[in-house]
Amino acid sequence: MSELSAPHGDRPGRGGRPRDPSRDGAIRSAILAVLAESGYAGLTMDAVAATAGVGKATIYRRWRTKSDLVADAVAELSETSMTLPDTGSLEGDLRDLLRGLVAAVNGPLGAATLSLMSALPHEPALKEAFRSGPMEVWSDMYRQVWGRAVARGEVDDSVPGSAVSSSASAPILQRWLFSTAPVTDAFADEIISEVVLPLLAVRRAA
Predict the structure, then answer these.
(1) CA–CA distance, 36 with 28 (Å, rounded to integer)
(2) Could you report the per-residue pLDDT of 152-172, keeping only the tens digit for each?
(3) SS3 category, 79
(4) Residue 24 CB contacts under 8 Å (≥ 6 apart), including other chains
(5) Residue 82 — pLDDT band, cuts 50, 70, 90?
(6) What phi, psi does 91 have (nearest 5°)?
């Protein structure tokens, strides 16, 4: 993506500290709102500024390119959109984790992700933001949940990273990306009770 054209008299920033950090949250929320409504191709600085209630110069001081602007918003949201559960059991942790995933895909992060799918292969900054942001945050939480289950003796150390562990999140992502069916907490609970726990029982018996 080419550099943004800054308004006359304002030079685009170089990724330094924002001049007014209090406005960052409003701008990031506006970015995601515009993405959800207009997609990446339709995202403009005018629309972001109007939605955030700030001047365009405020945005240009923070980000040099449109992809940098979106990448920052996605990375920041990924750190606040999900919380690592600690219920004391694998079943409880998975239930909370999958419900968190349901909330994420149905919220601003999910809407932004869908709107950016076609742009990711052509925007290295966005691709890296997703790899090191939402994908890494989710993967780390998932590893910790299964790792604690191993430590508690609920599963053996061959389960994390296996098809059985992948069966927990895969149906949610498949439904979200490829189906018109709703992604709900009830669906997440059904995955645990009807898929993951029975597979774990079969694995133990084998």
Answers:
(1) 13
(2) 999 999 999 999 999 999 999
(3) coil
(4) 18, 62, 76
(5) confident
(6) -60, -45
